[in-house]
Write a structure and sequence with these properties.
Layout: E1 10-12, E2 15-17, H1 19-22, H2 29-36, E3 41-47, H3 49-52, H4 63-74, E4 80-86, H5 92-97, H6 99-102, E5 110-114, H7 117-122, H8 126-142, E6 146-150, H9 164-178, E7 182-183, H10 185-194, H11 200-203, H12 213-231, H13 251-254
Helix pairs in contact: 4-12, 8-9
Length: 256
Amino acid sequence: MLGIAATVPASAGGCTAPPDLVDLGAPLPKLLTAVRTNSPVRIVALGSSSTWGAGASSRAHSYPARLERELRVTWPNNDVRVINAGVNGQLARDMVARIDKDVVPHKPQLVVWQTGVNDAIKEVPLDAYGQLLQTGIERFRALGADVVLIDQQFYPRFAKLKNGALYMAAMRETALKLKVPVVQRYRIMQHLIASAQFTTATLLAPDQFHLNDQSYDCMGRLLAQSLRSAAALPPAAPAVAPAVAVPAVSKHEANM
């Protein structure tokens, strides 16, 4: 993730993450302009099942729903809406194909795009996946929207997924190339377990793949904190950050 120095952990509703895992480190100028002019704020959350809210007791407990509630409190003078454009099981190519239908009509200042895990499971060619990411980002920017990417979720079987880490690396490479911030969901979830805030059982739904009410709530709150900080930054061009290594999977995780 692109980083700006911070000194204290980010705490949100009982879940805490280190600053370097929460700070986007880049301004979101379209979002900032809307906030400062008290204009309506429209954010489209594009993604697959973990955007839709699979594993939660209802869609009201998905991360986009929590994000909207948090941002409405943060920006009371703005009409804030976070549109949940998640569709279960979709690949990056499926999401790019529905941009005109599910993103364009909302005229968002920001698109938060969660993708990658299904592409890794289905073994979509890595070069095709990277090109799809670039196509989507360029399309969102042509619409006049800022873009934030969300990488894969942590789950025990990830360690046994063929080339799973390479899909995370492909996203990061594309993000660095196009100067797009990435929410390091995988590392955040790892931290929540390593810091004993959650166990794998309490972090994930019974399928041990999707998040649950509590962890969606945590992720939505932390993302709200990321967006609050990014929207407060001056709208300067983001600096190119050094490459971030994909986190290694521990022996303990590999045996889960």
